Amino acid sequence: MAFHSIFDYGPLRTEFEKSGISDQFIPVVWKHVLQNPSCDIDTIASLPSAAYPLLRSKFRPLTSTVSSAVDSKDRVTTKLLIRLQNGSSVEAVIMRYDTRLGKYDGKPRPGGIRSTLCISSQVGCKMGCRFCATGSMGFKSNLSSGEIVEQLVHANHFSKIRNVVFMGMGEPLNNYRALVEAIQIMTGPPFQLSPKRITVSTVGIIHAINKFNDDLPNVNLAVSLHAPDQEVRCQIMPAARAFPLAKLMDALLSYQASSNQTVFVEYIMLDGVNDQEQHAHQLGKLLENLKSVVNLIPFNPIGTSSIYKTSSDQNVKKFQKIVRGIYNIRTTVRQEMGQDISGACGQLVVNLSEQRAIGGASLLTDIEDLRI
Q: Is there a domain that residue 363 lies in?
């Protein structure tokens, strides 16, 4: 028998309502489980007596378990392999950053090291991006909102999580209902994450972008653009055929007009494919009316089977100089974390048999710090 996660808000609220139990007790349950993830239901204090048999019969404090936790050599990154109750697995990555490397109003931030969690929203992914390891898995299933939140619960016992990025396995906007519910849970008690410290990445699911600000105000939106024209985009991202670039840009402009949010643009640098000077000029012109931050991402090879190569440092710097210098668009180069444990961008795939020894990365500033 499959049980619901106690963090599956919809089923939990429904069962409480049917039993005449106020949903005000739900945060009480969550707080206890967050602090005691391996607890027994009966140890949760101050609930109505009817709640205990109900919770025991249909819910579990956690329906997933951490199968393994692998640290990068520099211990800046930890990759969690999380086994779901149906036998499938997903990966989540904890990345530790130094807030002092970010800036606020042009001044260095105070503080020190804190952690960001890269979360998965699906088992596998149907987008099939040719540069991404997860895409090679194909699509297996959506995660429930509770299974998404449980990744945060697990991660908090390795490092206190301040920021969350939905950049793990899966296309978050293809699991929209669970995504929205999970973020609403994360921003409420007992987690109390700021929506400004949550970022959702998408390949560009236009109908979901159109309602994103209404459902998730103040949450950051990142778009995996990866090419400045439709032809190249479809070449490396087959799913882009369903989301023409012109319509995607219209959706982003409408989103920005209603939200006043900066849009993060993710752009993977593939040698000879999308990293030439003409591509930089095309990207600058494409984004000239959008308030955005461009994040150039070094390509992380997928084992020995990849058809792509990483752009040279020279090409990356030249690309950045054009977009930032000529078009005045803030452009950063992502310093990769967790490559040696296959935990970097594009490397998440459920396979622990192959460990890379590429070396780690030093502490760096986080994506949410770039929005100021």
A: no
Catalytic residue among 15, 266, 345, 368: 345
CA distance 207 to 202: 12
Q: Say how many CA atoms lie within 13 Å of 184 toward its Cβ.
A: 15
Q: How many domains, the chain?
A: 2
Same domain, 240 and 290: yes
Q: Which of 15, 91, 181, 368 is catalytic?
A: 91
* Token digits of residue 335: 């310093």
What pLDDT is stored for residue 40 in this prediction? 95
| 7-30 pLDDT, tens digit each | 999 999 999 999 999 999 999 999
Q: Is 91 a catalytic residue?
A: yes
Instruction: Specify the residue for token string 């967050």.
Output: 34
Q: Residue 368 pLDDT more than 70?
A: no
pLDDT of residue 195: 98
Pair (203, 80) in one structural domain: yes
Last residue of a domain, one of 13, 33, 59: 59
Q: And the tokens for 237?
A: 């991202």
Residue 254 to residue 263: CA distance in whole angstroms: 12
* 216 located within any domain: yes
3-state helix, strand, coil in the chain (%, to 5): 40, 20, 40
Query: 3-class DSSP state for residue 267?
Result: strand
Are 133 and 38 contained in the same domain?
no
> Of the candidates 188, 132, 153, which has an alpha carbon nearest to the alpha carbon of residue 9?
188
Please indicate, yes or no, whether residues 208 and 273 belong to a single structural domain of this protein: yes
Beta-bridge partner residues of 199:
165, 220
Compute the distance between CA of residue 151 and CA of residue 64 in angstroms, rounded to an integer: 9
Mark whether 181 is an active-site residue. no
